[in-house]
Specification:
Blueprint (H helix, E strand, L loop, with lengths): L1 H67 L17 E5 L10 H15 L4 E7 L4 E5 L5 E2 L5 H13 L9 E3 L14 E3 H10 L3 H11 L4 H7 L15 E2 L1 H16 L3 H10 L6 H5 L6 E9 L8 E10 L2 E9 L5 H17 L12
Antiparallel strand pairs: 1-3, 2-3, 2-10, 4-7, 5-6, 8-9, 9-10
Length: 360
């Protein structure tokens, strides 16, 4: 009896302890399992984060590589977004640059002031990075004399460089728009007509060039660069075209000058001597160098109104193409409005370095 009693008491004492021990071991195991699962989850999260970071880094590197390989051409202007509002963009495949709200508001205010007087199409682009601003880039506007330098480029690039025309060849002036403007009849060397058309915006000289060379491949040249709205028209030698096309052609001017020919450099120098530039006037005091050709006209038919200017701006060590095409009638105050827009755009240039570029 005594032995049985002792065994019973031992069971009473030790069995609960064994059960408690088992429970403790189970709890410890559960805790260890939970900790292991948490550690595994953390490791997986860290691995996913690392993968995401690498993917982002690879994407940034791809963007940088694409930006490094970027080369502005007439064709790249296809990628400017079509929009009725002011947009920033990158032609190099990078994120669009972020323009400060204050500078953006200044540009929009200048655009609004112009639109109170007429229509406006605008493109600004940093030629190195392909970043820029645009407003209604495909709205066609009567360009007036703004096309004279671009047409002269056609003559030089497509005809003179190929030996089909010499700058010393003579062209007859058969079309007189302004009897008091000189070149009212007679024949003059091509170089003299180009100088008069580009520097002094002489209509008679420009007309002589168009009369001589319009059917020597002009349409093929201009459409080959994507400026389909600037083709030959029977009713006018002054095309109605958009800022996108204007900017395309000025990019071709840069490419042509970059080839280094004597004729190209001569033409480039002429565009830096223009007697009228609303852009140059607007950037006064900024130490900017402007190569341009402006156009201006007032007409009883509003479709022939224009205060426009386009060209290349060198500012703070960078090169920009700026095209401002407006359907405003020509007045001193409207010319000043174009200058004010040019100044507002120049003030944005520091914001045009896009995210992901090496200059960022």
């Amino acid at each position: 009896m005594y032995v049985v009693l002792v065994c019973v008491l031992a069971c009473i004492v030790f069995v609960p302890g064994a059960i408690a021990g088992a429970r403790g071991s189970s709890a410890d195991a559960a805790q260890e399992s939970a900790q292991a699962q948490a550690a595994e989850a953390q490791a997986q999260a860290a691995e996913a984060k690392a993968k995401d970071a690498k993917a982002a880094s690879d994407a940034d590197e791809a963007k940088r590589s694409k930006a490094d390989d970027f080369e502005l051409s007439a064709a790249t202007f296809d990628d400017i977004p079509t929009s009725d509002g002011l947009v920033s963009y990158s032609l190099a495949g990078l994120d669009a640059p972020k323009v400060s709200s204050a500078r953006r508001a200044s540009v929009e205010s200048a655009l609004d002031a112009i639109e109170e007087q007429g229509s406006v199409s605008m493109v600004l682009v940093d030629t190195q990075t392909g970043s820029g601003l645009a407003y209604q880039p495909d709205l066609v506007v009567y360009g007036a004399s703004s096309f004279k330098a671009l047409y002269s480029m056609y003559v030089c690039e497509s005809l003179v460089e190929k030996g089909e025309v010499s700058l010393d060849d003579y062209c007859a002036v058969n079309w007189v728009a302004d009897s008091s403007g000189g070149y009212s009849g007679g024949s003059y060397p091509v170089y003299e007509l180009i100088e008069a058309a580009v520097i002094y915006s002489n209509n008679n000289a420009y007309g002589a060039l168009r009369d001589a060379f319009d059917f020597e491949g002009f349409d093929d040249w201009v459409t080959g660069l994507g400026a389909n709205d600037a083709v030959y028209r029977e009713d006018s030698w002054f095309p109605t075209y958009a800022a996108r096309s204007s900017a395309r052609l000025w990019s071709e001017m840069l490419a042509y000058v970059g080839e280094g020919s004597e004729t190209a450099q001569w033409l480039w120098d002429l565009t830096g001597q223009t007697t009228v530039s609303f852009i140059r006037d607007g950037l006064e005091g900024l130490d900017a160098v402007v190569h341009n050709k402006a156009g201006w006209c007032s007409d009883s038919d509003p479709s022939y109104n224009s205060v426009s200017d386009a060209g290349v701006v060198d500012l703070d060590g960078r090169t920009y193409i700026m095209s401002i095409m407006t359907g405003m009638p020509d007045t001193d105050s409207n010319q000043a409005l174009v200058g004010q827009l040019a100044r507002a755009l120049a003030d944005c240039c520091g914001d045009l370095v896009p995210s992901g570029s090496d200059d960022d």
